Amino acid sequence: MTSAKVEKGPEEPPAAAADTTSAEGYQRALGARQIQMIAIGGAIGTGLFLGAGKAIAKAGPSLVLAYAIAGLVIFFIMRALGELLMYRPVAGSFSEYAREFVGPFAGFVTGWTYWLFWVVTGITEVTAAAQYMTFWFDIPQWVSALIFTVILYGVNLISVKLFGELEFWFSMVKVTAIVGMILICAGILTLGFSDAGDTASVTHLWADGGFFPHGIKGTLMTLQIVMFAFLAVELVGVTAGESKDPKTVLPKAINTVPWRIAVFYIGALVMILSVVPWTEFSPDVSPFVEAFQKMGLGLGAGIVNFVVLTAALSSCNSGMYSTGRMLRDLALNGQGPKVFTRLTRSGTPLVGTTVSAALMLVGVWINYQWPGDAFTYVVSFATISGMWAWIMILVSQLRYRRLADRGVLPQSSFRAPGAPYTSVFALAFLGLVIVMMGIDKDARISLYCAPLWALILGVSYLVLKARNPANKAFTGR
């Protein structure tokens, strides 16, 4: 039993309501269809649509290889998460597992860092959305950022069922658009229509300076952008407490990771880099929008810009959803203000969501001060904070597997294949990404901020522990 259950006490739902209400008090209103599309849509966002432009400029066609290797690592991480989720599906999954298998302080750091990750990611997504608006309108980025933040906050005051339905359709738009774009590019390559028809060829993948035009180092320097693109795939873990049938739905969602990456990342990039040479893309413009413009399909460029705008807003919407849940998990365990435990009648953690949305307004100020560099700044910081959750997932899974193999804990029904070796490999890869971020002057700012954040968390933990010395959240199991 978690400390969250202990503190719920009299609010614990009756056994008859177990099918509709989770142990944390949430409504189990997310169905299989919604969870699947949230999982698919979580992998399609700003990192792919906007960040890929900067990555193409640094790595050229070899970016495809970077996405393929990173995608394999992501699959290892998701299977490790799946093993933990089937052992014990809880809403505050990452911090709960870190708290149980690494220690109370690890759970505290993971919960607050994942919350910070989504706040920063929300700023990133609203920044991207503001940039997309300039495609149609000549308005300051900060104005668009402010409007979008306020609208999405309003959307998150609805029930989780309606949130799931909105995310379903957001994801459907993204999936349909990418599949359609791949088919159009395939048609150009085979039939030769559009302005790019005469020059389109798969030889662009190696003819314009080679597959590694900037060498292996250029490819490695894109790793932080590549990993940022995959951030949010773990969001399915946060939905565990609100899924109707987590032990059936979540494994199916996790097992879709390989084909998602193969189609939406590798397939899409291979197609646009074959139709348009990589040297013709601008690092500050979405390569998908620019590809349609260079094909002479102006209407298509406008449609794609609408799709990537939808993708950014969808990701920000998911961020507001997860931040409220993570703050509530921390509060239930005595590692955050009790006010965050309050739920509305529809099961929404209103206070946590409100505080997170207010902090996302920092993105408005960033867009006002540095409209040209805002995306780079927030991407680097979001990447390092998001990767901490992945690291804790892997470490927790390694320790859980060791205890399960010894018979101390029950075996998971969804064991990660190749573990512990795949988990160790994934940890080593994440270490490489952090090293490359230290080398990249644009990404290095996040490594400067990380020690400051660690100091804030360390002091806060000691203060809370001194006030609540007997709390299980600070003494361990």
Helix vs. strand class: mainly alpha
Tally the helices: what do you get? 23
What order do the SSEs take from the amino end to the carboxyl end, as H and E? HHHHHHHHHHHHHHHHHHHHHHH
The biggest beta sheet reads: none
Q: Could you tell me the mean pLDDT? A: 81
Beta fraction = under 5%
Q: How many beta-strand segments?
A: 0
* Uncertain stretches of 5 or more adjacent residues: 1-19
Report the span from N to C terminus.
10 Å
- The outline comes out as globular
Helicity, in percent? Answer: 55-70%
Using the CA coordinates, give the radius of gyration.
22 Å
What does this protein structure show overall?
The protein is mostly helical. The protein has helices spanning 3-8, 32-42, 46-49, 51-59, 63-87, 93-101, 104-133, 141-155, 160-191, 204-207, 215-220, 223-230, 235-238, 246-254, 257-275, 287-294, 298-332, 350-360, 362-369, 374-405, 421-439, 444-467, 472-475. The N and C termini lie close together (10 Å).
